[in-house]
Design goal:
Helix content of chain A: 55-70%
Order of helices and strands of chain B: HHHEEEEEEE
Radius of gyration of chain B: 37 Å
Helix content of chain B: 25-40%
Structural class of chain A: mainly alpha
CATH topology of one domain in chain B: Immunoglobulin-like
Structural class of chain B: alpha+beta
Shape of chain B: elongated
Largest interface: A-B, 43 and 31 residues
Strand order of the largest sheet of chain A: 1-2
CATH architecture of one domain in chain B: Sandwich
Oligomer: heterodimer
Distance between the termini of chain A: 70 Å
Chain lengths: 203, 162
């Protein structure tokens, strides 16, 4: 009895104090998921932030717990695709890419093509899909640019595609044009030396 | 009145070539001073030099300036939201525990702004207007996985060449 009480006290003390914003039932369920994720070696900060987002937005406890559980599963899938050396930021971006429609094989291919960190490449892939670009087109574009483009290049590429879409271009076509017309229209400093880092043209 | 330049140069050379009288006891005095000089601890220098070099090497190893660890750096990002009619706007997101009190935005004629320092990573965020109205950032990608019924935006801070 005393031992059980002590264990409960230790467990409560081990809970992240930020989770106090959740109601007791939700807090307990979320803490269990967080502890399990920690035991599996997954980053727990994204889980806590997702729970806090739900609390601040006034979401029902069940929905918060479901969101945290789903994120745990997806973090595990991202780690499976990106490898155990992937950072927390890369895993979180990997989750976004997977949820956008990228397959684990695409994530693994990206890992092979580009030296870490992969955070920006994965995020750009997810953001392109959010802008309306079909997932396969977004993945093909990011994989094409990944070997040489800097993070800043990828951001500029995403912005260029978004601008084209805002001007009325079909998302898939805008992406393809920006990738295929690289030497002439999107990038400068390429074409003569294959090793040259492509740089997007400034607007 | 004027000498030729060659003559002047020749006279200067001859002047400089004249032997200079030096005190005959100078050599003896110099050698005596050298002999009386306190010995320096020459054996101590290599030790201190090695320690200093080890300290510098240790500092470099700890700082690891070549490291690509994403947590080593952060960028100051400014968030801007236009809401002329709003009484208050807060920036909330993964970087401030979704706490509206942490990042209240300041206004100038309806343009609300605040700056946050972020380490490389992908962050979800939103603007909370008047404490009740959730708004996504119209100038940023939208978070697709909106599980709580209100829109959020996404910002990614890069780690390489960004």
């Amino acid at each position: 009895m005393i031992l059980a009480a002590l264990l409960m006290v230790v467990q409560v003390a081990a809970q992240d104090p930020r989770l106090e914003r959740l109601d007791p039932g939700t807090r307990s369920a979320v803490s269990a998921v967080v502890d399990s994720a920690r035991g599996d070696g997954l980053p727990v900060e994204p889980l806590i932030q997702r729970a806090l987002e739900g609390a601040t937005k006034g979401a029902p406890g069940a929905r918060i717990v479901a969101a945290v559980r789903r994120l745990t599963v997806d973090l595990g899938a991202a780690r499976l695709a990106l490898g155990t050396n992937a950072s927390a930021a890369e895993l979180e971006a990997g989750v976004a890419a997977l949820r956008a429609g990228a397959t684990p094989e695409i994530l693994a291919h990206l890992r092979d093509l580009r030296r870490p960190p992969l955070t920006m490449a994965l995020s750009v892939l997810a953001d392109l899909v959010a802008s309306g670009v079909p997932a396969d087109s977004a993945a093909a574009a990011v994989l094409a640019l990944a070997p040489h483009a800097r993070d800043a290049d990828l951001v500029e590429f995403r912005r260029a595609v978004e601008r084209d879409i805002a001007l009325g271009a079909p998302p898939g076509a805008a992406t393809s044009i920006r990738v295929n017309a690289g030497a002439e229209n999107v990038f400068s400093g390429t074409g003569t030396n294959p090793g040259t880092v492509p740089r997007p043209r400034r607007p | 009145m004027f000498e030729r330049a060659d003559d002047v140069v020749e006279r200067v050379i001859q002047h400089l070539r004249r032997p200079v009288a030096i005190d005959p006891g100078l050599d003896a005095r110099v050698l005596r001073e050298i002999a009386q000089a306190p010995p320096t601890n020459r054996r101590g220098w290599p030790l201190w030099s090695a320690l200093a070099a080890a300290a510098v090497l240790g500092a470099i190893l700890i700082a690891r300036p070549w490291s690509r660890d994403e947590t080593n750096r952060s960028d100051l990002l400014q968030f801007v939201f236009v809401a002329p009619q709003a009484a208050s706007v807060s920036l909330v997101g993964d970087f401030n525990d979704w706490d509206p009190a942490r990042s209240p935005m300041q206004t100038a004629q309806g343009v609300w702004a605040t700056a946050v320092r972020l380490a490389p990573g992908r962050y979800r965020y939103a603007f909370l207007v008047n404490g009740v109205d959730w708004r996504a950032d119209p100038g940023a990608p939208t978070a697709r996985d909106d599980e709580f019924g209100t829109a959020s935006s996404v910002v990614t801070v890069g780690g390489r060449g960004s």
